[in-house]
Amino acid sequence: MNKFTEDDLKKELETKEYEYGFYTDIESDTFPVGLNEDIVRAISKKKEEPEWMTEWRLEAFRIWQAMEEPDWANVNYEKPNFQDISYYSAPNKKPKYESLDEVDPELLDTFSKLGISLDEQKKLAGVAVDVVMDSVSVATTFKETLAEKGIIFCSISEAIQKHPELVKKYIGSVVPQKDNFYAALNSAVFSDGSFCYIPKGVRCPMELSTYFRINQAGTGQFERTLVVADEGSYVSYLEGCTAPMRDENQLHAAVVELIALDDAEIKYSTVQNWYPGNAEGKGGVFNFVTKRGLCEKNAKISWTQVETGSAVTWKYPSCVLKGDHSIGEFYSIAVTNNYQQADTGTKMIHLGKNTRSTIISKGISAGKSQNSYRGLVQINSRAENARNFSQCDSLLMGNQCGAHTFPYIEAKNKTAQVEHEATTSKIGEDQIFYCNQRGIDTEKAIALIVNGFSKEVLNKLPMEFAVEAQKLLEISLEGSVG
Amino acid sequence: MSLKDKLLSSFFVFEDQVDVNNDVHKLRNEALKLFEAKGFPTKKDEAWKYTSLNSLLKEDYSIFPKKEEALEYKEVKKYFIHDIDTYTIVFVDGIYASHLSQTTHDKFHACLMSSALTKTQYKPIIDNYFNKIAPKDSSLNALNTAFSKEGAFIYIPKNVMVDKPIQILNFSTGNESALLIQPRNLVVVEENSHVQIIERHQSLTENPVLTNSVTEIFAEKRAMVDYYKIQNDKASASLIDNTFIEQQQESNCAVHTFSLGGKLTRNNLNFYQKGEYIDSTLKGVTIIEGKQHVDHNTLVHHAQPNCESHQDYKGIYDDKSVGVFNGKVYVEKVAQKINAYQSNNNILVDDKATINSKPQLEIFADDVRCSHGCTIGQLDEEALFYLKSRGIPEKEGKALLMYAFANNVLESVKIPELKKRINLLIAKKLNVDLGFDL
């Protein structure tokens, strides 16, 4: 039998279609395309929102109209036509399930294809999944267990109905409507998202998790997530994404706001695997996300992300270290292949005394992709004894891709200690040779080396996610080294 | 009238002073059009994010200084590196001062841009090199090109080892209430040749001076160029230095920049590597205080395989001073086996001082070794305590540590007398009486 060579593998991978590219046929209740004040009002009405929320959305819409789409990022793409998008799509039968049996079997089938069987998750992983499919949450599990502890974990629309005082207080407090073009758009039209509130001193007993999917053709996904950890509480929040295959580009403009009050800790992990487009760079999701967390005194926010999907990614999970002694962390792996473009990084804004931040960013580029790290570390004049450590490593596979680093470092306090280092390298032939010599074939050797390269970040992921992330890394990269 | 309008309207006056029937004048006209379209850079330009020219542009500069001031050698002697023999080219208010200069036409040519632009002997060189690497889209380069008339012209033919360093000094006298000077230098070093150049801008007055200088350096095969910039000017003087270096195969170029004074200093230093096995070095020490502002903007463009580049910038910032470092390494797809290193270390001495650093990498080749590091920190308290415990007073101890911090850069200065001079300047800057000849 012929040996399965690297070229074969390469071929197989190039022709390999997106595994999760399927389309669930659930009748959707979709709005006409286009965006104007009436659409914004209609979204708000559809969701039976109170007056203040409608006004808040309209204000955002007016701000958005006056803004221009930013083009400073190191990415090239055809700008989406915002009047060509339908801004609301909800599964038609808007069910509220108490148990899994009631869920549309077709939907369950979709999840099992994704490898996220709900009951398995329920039993084995102890994860409460607030499933978001095309913008409206259709299943929430473990709600009772959480409710006992006083934890609120529900869709944001539900939160607007049931806990308006909390939503009103915190929404837009970290990412204001006027923050940037996509945040303004999201504020105006967000369809749904998750809301989470951990009361004082409560340690959330399980990992909270949301799966995002884009399902309906031509619909934008505008998620809004708000996580509030009250004094002394702890929560670990998981967010994972897969999207079915689509030919036209789809827009995803989410906003995530985290608020960690005094002594609280939030751990936010993301695995992003939106459809990246095919090998010719056709199709794929545009991922323009604004994520930001606010740390009060002694609070800690930790962002961990594994980015393997999307045609264009534009994402900077940030921490505002407002309180004294607060801590911000950012761990990221960004993998780009074929014609993917990623411009991602973080912002660490040090305002309080003795604040600390750590940035570990690993970029892996293969194929004809472009991978950029863009980060800001800002030490303000009152941030005594602020400390930052940043490390950005890039791994290049093949000579068609590019790796870029744009770190901005601004220090205005003499007691600041900032360290930044970056390296760019490729997988050494000697490393592969060594593995070969020990009986590990080239394909496995690459997986091994990439795994080692990303280990610092993978280690930060919760168990279940780490496994999935490793799998994703392998799918995205195998065979991309010639 | 804004400075831009003033410059545009005085171009007609300028045309009376130069030969308008040659190719260079075409370049001037094109450049003027570009400057007219783009104007001065503002903070909205990414490359000028941390440096504003606004405070400089409001002065009413005279663009055509009056005739040369009679400047005695003894008045300016201290600004020369006089303990070694050198060739010197001196300009006073942008005009060549022959009595202070010592130039040559013997084995090589060290003369004036004004004569190089008119003499037929130099025409092939001007045609080949003038304005060839200065980026056409930069408005400050364009402004300099539009008014290019005077500066140093250095041409070293093949296989010449220049026996002594060449000094280029620019003095401004305060003859004008505010002066804008735009020197235009061209250095061409042919195959296997070797030259060392020291450049200094010095104001002798409290009147505001703005220098917008453009220097183009061409290093042909196996050429060696050693360039030192001393920037220790008065608090009223500002400098925008644009230096562009093109290197051919196996050449070796190093630029050391010592920024120790001046109101606003902006160094645009670009290296373009056009051959294989090239070595480029960019080093700098910045020690400033008060409200001074120093901005280093570097680019190393690797276009061919097997090359190296080294960047090392150290900064010490006191009072309300502002330091900016924006270093960029660009590696093209074909430029495999590159070794690029970039390091930027900073010490903030005062709470009001600011440092903005942006070490940037853009890499399109996979088999490269590129790394950069950036730190911001303080002097090591324990080291200081150790020195104090050995009887070294705090001030001297601090100075010693700062000197050690900057030593990496100083070590590679190849002219011993210059090194000594810079040591003295640093000692003076740190307000100590240490010779550092330890």
SSE blueprint and pairings:
The complex is a heterodimer of chains A (482) and B (438).
Chain A: H1 6-15, E1 28-30, H2 37-46, H3 51-66, E2 89-91, H4 105-113, H5 118-125, E3 128-133, E4 136-140, H6 143-149, E5 152-155, H7 156-162, H8 164-170, H9 181-189, E6 194-198, E7 208-213, E8 224-229, E9 234-242, E10 250-252, E11 255-260, E12 265-273, E13 285-295, E14 300-307, E15 312-315, E16 318-321, E17 327-336, E18 341-344, E19 347-350, E20 356-365, E21 370-379, E22 387-396, E23 402-411, E24 417-426, H10 429-437, H11 442-458, H12 463-477
Parallel strand pairs in A: 3-7, 6-8, 7-9, 8-11, 9-12, 10-13, 11-13, 12-14, 13-15, 13-16, 14-17, 15-18, 16-19, 17-20, 18-21, 19-21, 20-22, 21-23, 22-24
Antiparallel strand pairs in A: 1-2, 3-4, 5-6
Chain B: H1 3-9, H2 11-17, H3 23-38, H4 54-57, H5 73-76, E1 87-92, E2 95-96, E3 109-112, H6 113-118, H7 123-129, H8 139-146, E4 152-156, E5 166-172, E6 179-181, E7 184-189, E8 194-203, E9 209-219, E10 224-231, E11 237-247, E12 252-259, E13 264-273, E14 279-288, E15 293-302, E16 308-317, E17 322-331, E18 339-348, E19 354-363, E20 369-377, H9 381-389, H10 394-411, H11 416-429
Parallel strand pairs in B: 1-5, 4-7, 5-8, 6-9, 7-9, 8-10, 9-11, 10-12, 11-13, 12-14, 13-15, 14-16, 15-17, 16-18, 17-19, 18-20
Antiparallel strand pairs in B: 1-2, 3-4
Helix pairs in contact in B: 3-8, 9-10, 10-11
Domain SUF system FeS cluster assembly SufBD core (chain B): 176-405
Organism (chain B): Mesonia hippocampi
InterPro entries (chain B): Fe-S_cluster_assembly_SufBD, SUF_FeS_clus_asmbl_SufBD_core, SUF_FeS_clus_asmbl_SufBD_sf, SUF_FeS_clus_asmbl_SufD, SufBD_N
Number of strands of chain B: 20
Main β sheet profile of chain B: 10 strands, mixed
Query: For the CA atoms, what is the radius of gyration of chain A?
Result: 22 Å
Shape of chain B: globular
Gyration radius of chain B, rounded = 21 Å
Domain SUF system FeS cluster assembly SufBD core (chain A): 212-453
Domain SUF system FeS cluster assembly SufBD N-terminal (chain A): 124-204
Family (chain A): Belongs to the iron-sulfur cluster assembly SufBD family.
Protein name (chain A): Fe-S cluster assembly protein SufB
